Amino acid sequence: MSRDTQMTEQALLDGKLLYEYKTMSAMVQIYCKAHHHAACVEQCEDCQAFLEYAHTRLDRCPYGQDKPTCNKCPVHCYKPHMKAKAREIMIFAGPRMLLPHPIMAIRHLLAERKAAPAKPPVHASNRHLRKAK
Questions:
Q1: Rounded to two decimals, what is the model's pTM?
Q2: Which among 6, 45, 118, 121 is least surrounded, fewest beta carbons within 10 Å?
């Protein structure tokens, strides 16, 4: 994915959702570098496809800006194989986030301690709010 396309996609997200996407991107970069290719700066096609999928899921999250972390969320919006991939990436990259991205890692850990809201409000997703403008 080109840098311009990535910037356009990130423009769809803002606030907490954008921060969540950046955290996921950092984790995927750590995972991809260790598992797929150590020399390249960009992610491989599989990891890039996963990031695009995660971006779409974040944009359509029914909780919108009140989104809990995925492992605390009662709504299962990822397909089973993508959920397994996300879990694999997070288990590997989570502990390794402390050195390259300490603030991001600590904020993510603190967010995991918060309880998930009971039921998402109607039309609170980022996508619904963007289309309503």
A1: 0.82
A2: 118
CA–CA separation, 101 and 109 (whole Å):
12
Which residues are CB-neighbours of 72 under 8 A, at least 6 positions away? 112, 114, 115, 116
* Cα gap 94→24, rounded to integer Å: 10
What are the tens digits of pLDDT across the range 83-121? 999 999 999 999 999 999 999 999 988 888 888 778 787
Burial bucket for residue 53 (CB in 10 Å: 0-12, 13-18, 19+): middle
Element (H, E) at 117: none
- From start to end of 83-131, where are the E strands? none
